[in-house]
C-alpha cells in the first residue's frame, strides 16, 4: 500500500502497527476526509521510540485533535480547496485537493517539547486515510513559516512565458527553494483566460488583462500580480550600445528592466528589442557586456513606449563594473554562539549557471541565475570558520559561466549581517581592517579573516594595537594554501587599522562576532564586510543616514598614509589628521561628504536598539568612493525575517530630480532625494519589499542595502567598480 493511500473497506486492518477503524466523513465545497493513525513508531534523529498518547495534539490544515490514551486519533472533516483537476488551473475539479497537506503534532512533557510530522499528501472527497510513517524530532517540523515569490517577469505579452520562483522560510530560520512541485508547492491562477500556471510554476500569457498567481506550500501562501498585454500594446525598442570611446559594444546583451524582452548587439552596435510591453510606465533598457577586462554595463533614460511602432532608445554607453565576476572566494567568520544560517545570494544581468563549493567540508551545489533575479544557496552551518587564531579549510568558492554578483548573509536571530563578496580578480596584497571594539569575551570578539586562492601564500599581519596573543605594531606571518582561511578573533582590543599584507593576492573580511555600537548600548550584533584592497580606496565618500533610526549613525574613517587630512562637510563639519592605520569614529546625522588628502576607507554602522531605536541593531557596511559607483545593480533582501528593508541611493542631482533612477523599472520619486553638502549629488532612503530588485540609471549611482527587525539588522553595499588608483 502506498503512503497516505485512501483506505477501502478491505484495507482498514492491513496497515501494520496502526490501529484503524472504518470511518467516513462527508462535506461540501471541497475534498473532506477523516485521518486516523496511532502506532509505536521508531523515531529518527536519536530520539527513542515514541508512542502517541494523550499528551499529543495533532493538526492537519488547521483541523486539530487530541490523541487518545491508546494512541489512536481522528481528525474529521479536513478540508482543502479543489478548484481544478490534474491538468492544473482551468481544468475541471477532480475531487482531489489542489494543495499538499502534512500532519504535524506536538507533545510537551515536563517542559520538554517533542514534535511529529508526516510526509506530504493529498486528500480526496469522502475518503478515510491512514497517515504513515511519522517522524519524531526535538525540533519544530520543517514547515514554511512564510513564502516569498517572484516572477521572472511581472509583465508578459500573449503567448509569452515566465517562471515563478518561490522560497520558503522555515522555523529554524533557514530559507529553501520550493519552486518545483517536487518540493510540494502548488500553484493557481486567478484568471486562466489571462494566464495559466503549471505544477512547476511555469506561467504563460493567454489574453490581455491582469491575473494573480498564488503559490501554496504547507499552509503558507504567496501571491504576485501579472499583467498580460495584447499585441496592440507592444512596441519594438531600437538603439545603439557603445563603449566610452565610441566603439560599438558588439555582443552586448540588452534587456528591458522588469520584462522578458532581450536581444544582442550587432556588429554596428545596434539592437532591436521586439514585444516590449507598453503599459504607461517608463521603459528602461539595460545593456551588459563581458570582456577579458571585466563587465561593462549601462542603461537608457526613461523611454515612453509607442504602441505598435518603434521606440528609440538612442545611444547607451557602457562602463566598467568590476564588483561582478566569474570566480569568488570568501568565508563566513564566526557569528555569536548559536548555529547560524549561511546563505549565498547570486545575481546577474545574463542567464548563467555555476557552482558553490566549500571544499573543506565536501559541500557542492550547482545553481542557475536568470536575468534580474537572485538565486539563494544555503550552506551547511559547518561552513562557518570557527578558529580564533588559526587556519581552517572553510573557504567558500563560487564559480559561474558568466559574470555574477555575490552576496553573503550570516543569520542568527538577533545577530545578523550581510556583505558583498568581491571577485578573485580584484584581490590585492595590502589591506587595512575595519571592525569594532571587543567586549571582553570570545562571544563579542573583534577580528578579521583572510582567504587564499594560491598554495604557499604568506600573509603578514601587523596589529595596530595590542590584541589577544599579539602586541601592537609587531608583525607575524601565516602560511596558507589555496582554499584555506586564517581567522583572527580577539576578546580584547580593536582590530581596526590592522595591516594585512601578502606575497600573493588574497581576500580579506573585517568582522566582529557580536559588537555593541556604541559600546555600552544594547544589543550586540554580528558585523561582517568583505574589504577592498588599499589600492582601490578613494578620497571622496558620500553618506546617507539609515532610515528610521534615532541619534544618527556611527562612521569609522581609516587611513593608510601618515598625515592624511580628512574634511567632513555636513550637519556637523569636522577636520582632522590621521596617520597610517589610525581611524576616527564619528557620530553623524543627515547626509555628508567626506574628503581626504590620501585614499581612505569608510565604514557606516547601525546602532544598537537602546541607542537608535527598535526595530534595529548594529551592522557594518563599507562605503565605496563616489568614483566607483555603477549604472545598474541587481540585489536582494533576505527572503524573510526583516520587517523593514531599505536601499539608500546616491545619484547626481540632475538624475535624481528628473526621475532618472529606476527601481524595478519605476522612477524613484524626486521628492525622496535630499542634497549632500554642496556636492552635485543627492541621497535618498527608499523603502523596498522583501525579494529581488534591480536599479539602474543613465549615470553612475551608489546603492546601499539594509534592513531591520526586532533587535536585528543587516547591511551591505550594492557593488562598486574597484578602480585601481
UniProtKB/TrEMBL annotation:
InterPro entries: IgGFc-bd_N, Invasin/intimin_cell_adhesion. Gene3D superfamilies: 2.60.40.1080. Residues 417-707 form the IgGFc-binding protein N-terminal domain. It holds the Pfam family IgGFc_binding. This is IgGFc-binding protein N-terminal domain-containing protein. It comes from Engelhardtia mirabilis. The lineage of its organism: Bacteria, Pseudomonadati, Planctomycetota, Planctomycetia, Planctomycetia incertae sedis.
Amino acid at each position: 500500500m502506498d503512503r497516505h493511500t485512501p483506505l477501502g473497506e478491505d484495507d482498514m486492518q492491513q496497515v501494520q502497527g496502526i490501529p484503524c477503524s472504518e470511518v467516513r466523513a462527508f462535506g461540501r465545497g471541497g475534498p473532506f476526509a477523516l485521518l486516523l493513525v496511532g502506532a509505536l513508531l521508531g523515531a529518527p534523529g536519536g530520539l527513542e521510540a515514541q508512542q502517541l498518547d494523550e499528551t499529543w495534539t495533532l493538526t492537519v490544515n488547521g483541523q486539530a485533535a487530541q490523541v487518545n490514551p491508546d494512541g489512536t486519533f481522528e481528525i474529521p472533516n479536513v478540508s482543502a480547496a479543489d478548484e481544478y483537476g490534474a491538468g492544473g488551473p482551468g481544468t475541471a475539479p477532480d475531487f482531489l485537493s489542489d494543495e499538499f497537506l502534512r500532519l504535524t503534532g506536538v507533545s510537551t512533557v515536563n517542559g520538554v517539547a517533542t514534535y511529529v510530522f508526516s510526509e506530504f499528501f493529498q486528500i480526496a472527497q469522502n475518503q478515510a486515510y491512514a497517515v504513515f510513517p511519522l517522524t519524531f524530532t526535538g525540533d519544530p517540523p520543517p514547515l514554511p513559516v512564510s513564502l516569498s515569490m517572484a516572477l521572472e517577469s511581472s509583465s508578459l505579452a500573449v503567448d509569452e512565458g515566465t517562471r515563478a520562483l518561490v522560497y520558503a522560510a522555515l522555523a529554524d530560520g533557514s530559507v529553501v527553494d520550493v519552486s518545483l512541485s517536487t518540493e510540494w508547492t502548488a500553484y493557481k491562477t486567478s484568471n486562466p483566460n489571462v494566464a495559466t500556471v503549471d505544477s512547476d510554476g511555469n506561467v504563460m500569457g493567454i489574453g490581455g488583462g491582469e491575473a494573480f498567481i498564488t503559490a501554496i506550500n504547507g499552509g503558507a501562501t504567496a501571491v504576485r500580480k501579472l499583467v498580460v498585454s495584447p499585441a496592440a500594446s507592444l512596441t519594438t525598442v531600437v538603439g545603439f550600445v557603445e563603449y566610452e570611446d565610441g566603439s560599438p559594444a558588439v555582443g552586448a546583451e540588452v534587456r528591458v528592466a522588469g520584462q522578458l524582452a532581450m536581444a544582442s548587439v550587432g556588429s554596428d552596435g545596434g539592437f532591436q528589442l521586439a514585444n516590449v510591453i507598453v503599459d504607461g510606465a517608463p521603459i528602461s533598457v539595460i545593456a551588459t557586456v563581458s570582456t577579458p577586462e571585466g563587465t561593462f554595463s549601462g542603461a537608457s533614460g526613461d523611454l515612453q513606449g509607442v504602441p505598435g511602432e518603434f521606440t528609440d532608445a538612442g545611444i547607451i554607453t557602457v562602463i566598467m563594473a568590476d564588483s561582478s565576476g566569474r570566480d569568488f572566494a570568501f568565508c563566513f567568520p564566526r557569528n555569536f554562539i548559536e548555529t547560524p544560517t549561511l546563505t549565498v545570494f547570486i545575481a546577474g544581468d545574463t542567464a548563467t549557471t555555476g557552482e558553490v563549493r566549500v571544499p573543506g567540508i565536501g559541500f557542492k551545489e550547482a545553481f542557475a541565475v536568470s536575468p534580474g533575479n537572485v538565486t539563494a544557496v544555503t550552506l551547511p552551518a559547518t561552513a562557518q570558520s570557527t578558529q580564533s587564531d588559526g587556519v581552517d579549510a572553510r573557504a567558500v568558492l563560487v564559480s559561474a559561466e558568466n559574470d555574477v554578483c555575490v552576496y553573503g548573509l550570516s543569520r542568527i536571530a538577533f545577530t545578523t549581517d550581510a556583505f558583498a563578496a568581491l571577485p578573485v580578480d580584484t584581490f590585492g596584497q595590502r589591506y587595512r581592517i575595519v571592525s569594532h571594539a571587543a567586549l571582553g569575551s570570545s562571544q563579542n570578539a573583534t577580528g578579521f579573516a583572510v582567504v587564499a586562492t594560491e598554495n604557499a601564500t604568506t600573509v603578514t599581519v601587523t596589529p595596530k594595537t595590542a590584541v589577544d596573543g599579539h602586541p601592537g605594531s609587531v608583525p607575524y606571518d601565516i602560511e596558507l594554501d589555496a582554499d584555506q582561511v586564517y581567522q583572527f578573533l580577539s576578546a580584547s582590543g580593536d582590530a581596526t587599522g590592522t595591516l594585512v599584507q601578502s606575497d600573493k593576492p588574497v581576500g580579506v573580511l573585517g568582522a566582529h562576532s557580536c559588537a555593541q555600537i556604541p559600546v555600552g548600548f544594547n544589543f550586540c550584533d554580528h558585523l561582517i564586510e568583505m574589504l577592498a584592497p588599499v589600492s582601490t580606496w578613494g578620497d571622496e565618500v558620500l553618506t546617507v543616514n539609515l532610515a528610521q533610526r534615532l541619534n544618527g549613525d556611527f562612521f569609522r574613517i581609516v587611513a593608510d598614509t601618515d598625515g592624511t587630512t580628512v574634511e567632513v562637510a555636513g550637519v556637523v563639519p569636522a577636520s582632522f589628521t590621521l596617520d597610517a592605520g589610525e581611524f576616527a569614529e564619528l557620530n553623524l546625522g543627515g547626509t555628508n561628504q567626506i574628503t581626504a588628502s590620501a585614499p581612505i576607507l569608510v565604514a557606516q554602522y547601525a546602532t544598537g536598539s537602546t541607542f537608535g531605536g527598535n526595530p534595529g541593531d548594529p551592522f557594518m557596511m563599507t562605503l565605496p568612493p563616489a568614483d566607483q559607483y555603477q549604472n545598474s545593480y541587481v540585489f536582494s533582501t533576505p527572503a524573510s525575517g526583516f520587517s523593514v528593508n531599505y536601499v539608500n541611493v546616491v545619484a547626481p542631482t540632475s538624475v535624481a530630480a528628473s526621475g532618472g533612477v529606476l527601481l524595478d523599472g519605476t522612477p524613484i520619486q524626486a521628492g525622496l532625494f535630499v542634497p549632500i553638502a554642496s556636492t552635485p549629488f543627492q541621497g535618498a532612503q527608499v523603502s523596498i519589499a522583501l525579494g529581488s530588485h534591480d536599479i539602474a540609471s543613465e549615470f553612475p549611482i551608489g546603492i546601499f542595502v539594509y534592513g531591520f527587525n526586532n533587535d536585528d539588522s543587516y547591511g551591505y553595499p550594492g557593488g562598486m567598480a574597484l578602480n585601481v588608483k
